[in-house]
Write a structure and sequence with these properties.
Number of helices: 22
Number of strands: 0
Helix content: over 70%
Structural class: mainly alpha
Oligomer: single chain
Low-confidence stretches: 1-39
Largest sheet: none
Order of helices and strands: HHHHHHHHHHHHHHHHHHHHHH
Mean pLDDT: 87
CATH architecture of the largest domain: Alpha Horseshoe
Number of domains: 3
CATH superfamily of the largest domain: Tetratricopeptide repeat domain
Shape: elongated
Radius of gyration: 31 Å
Distance between the termini: 86 Å
Strand content: under 5%
CATH topology of the largest domain: Serine Threonine Protein Phosphatase 5, Tetratricopeptide repeat
CATH class of the largest domain: Mainly Alpha
């Protein structure tokens, strides 16, 4: 095999990294050549032996040894682009981004078609703070790269840059692509939360600046107070918002939900009921207000009235899980477990991880004498409850709740 043949075999391998940034997954370009083509001279034989030893060293995480093997290859043939690129990957993994950039640039000078080397070059430049040089490379790499860990790294660096420079439209586009390709990646999920929080914070700052006395600002303030558990002050802010704009959709309902969070006294329920009825007078299709009226009647021991409102809420939005759960509990109370199972099954088709649905389904199966089904649902409930226990309080703080949600906890004055 000639030296040009060896280079061709190396170039045809192309990819520097099989699964992103894990050095143990690096494909040593040309290493397979020894098994398919005989070496034609001593130099070719030495190159192949060094590649083989480098691959073995990387597999055993002996990175110093692998570096020495690549340097030996470069001494034998300084024009083997893949050797420079692989050496750059080792420097990159060690955090030596300056040396990594030099290696990737040399590799690309010798073989501009090494796309992974270009990807790594962009990330290495960004890690050094050279965003002017890195940005065009990162944008090109993210658009064309394969779905691997290096693409995540590239995307997150682009997100950071776009976010810092307030280019939120570009940031959202990158984020949507990452969410599609890596829906369960913790870094992607964190940056999803972070980006939307930053967009929200910027929008809130603008709202304070341009409309400091607006109904929307009072509404946002009320929602923040609710997330902190200060429902009394939240009620005050919702009432201020309604003074500014009494016709704003959703405000009466939001005030009603906040009121119910302050107290379960009947006088408070009456105040909340009035707000939900005012919301429905202005917007008869507000499924949330129908649901909340159902909850009030349920707590008053009026299951028929409660069922009417829960049913109406489901009619307005068939995917309203909490309304389905509430309707199911009425069917259970009225001694109709078969209808309860039907409604709960519909809820689980929409939200298979809903622990309340599994818990109530276990109760319904028990009423029907289906002990095995009940046991299965109870196991599923306990698994979901355990998994969510550590994050539930944090989750409740950061999410916005338009309604009082269904739970498995005992209800006050349960019928």
């Amino acid at each position: 095999m000639t030296r040009s043949g060896s280079r061709a075999a190396i170039r045809n391998s192309r990819s520097l990294v099989k699964h992103g940034l894990r050095l143990t997954s690096v494909i040593i370009l040309g290493a397979l050549a020894a098994s398919v083509l005989p070496a034609q001279n001593d130099r070719e034989n030495q190159i192949q032996n060094h590649y083989r030893r480098a691959q073995e060293a990387l597999s055993a995480n002996r990175f110093d040894e692998a570096e020495n093997e690549f340097r030996a290859i470069i001494r034998l043939d300084p024009k083997l682009a893949a050797a420079h690129a692989n050496l750059g990957v080792i420097h990159y993994a060690r955090g030596n981004y300056s040396e990594a950039s030099k290696c990737f640039r040399e590799a690309l000078k010798l073989d501009p078609s090494l796309s992974k080397a270009e990807n790594f070059l962009g990330v290495s430049e960004a890690r050094q703070g050279h965003m002017a040089e890195a940005l065009p490379i990162l944008e090109k790499s993210f658009k064309n790269s394969a779905v691997d860990e290096l693409r995540i790294e590239t995307g997150l660096l682009l997100l950071e840059n776009y976010n810092d420079t307030f280019k939120f439209d570009k940031a959202v586009a990158v984020l949507q692509s990452l969410q599609h390709d890596y829906p369960n990646n913790s870094e992607v999920l964190y940056h999803t939360y972070r980006l939307h929080s930053d967009i929200g914070a910027k929008a809130l700052a603008e709202l304070v600046r341009v409309a400091p006395d607006s109904a929307r600002l009072h509404q946002v303030t009320a929602e923040l107070l609710e997330s902190e558990g200060d429902y009394v002050q939240a009620v005050d802010q919702y009432r201020r918002a309604l003074k500014v704009n009494p016709k704003m959709a959703g405000l009466h309902r939001a005030l009603g939900v906040a009121l119910l969070s302050t107290s379960q006294e009947e006088t408070t329920r009456q105040l909340a009921q009035r707000e939900f009825e005012m919301e429905l007078a202005a917007n008869p299709s507000d499924e949330y207000s129908e649901y909340q009226l159902g909850e009030i009647y349920w707590l008053r021991h009026e299951p028929e009235q409660a069922r009417r409102h829960f049913t109406r809420a489901v009619e307005l939005r068939s995917g309203f899980v909490d309304a389905l759960l509430a309707l199911a509990k009425v069917w259970g109370f009225e001694g109709q477990p078969a209808k309860q199972v039907e409604v709960l099954s519909d809820a689980l088709k929409i939200d298979p991880q809903n622990e309340v649905a599994h818990y109530r389904l276990a109760q319904a199966y028990t009423q029907m004498g289906r002990k095995e089904d009940a046991a299965r649902e109870l196991v599923e409930f306990k698994k979901l409850r355990q998994a969510s226990a550590s994050i539930s309080s944090i989750y409740q703080q950061v999410r916005r709740r338009p309604i009082t949600e269904q739970t498995v906890e005992p209800e006050p004055d349960k019928p």
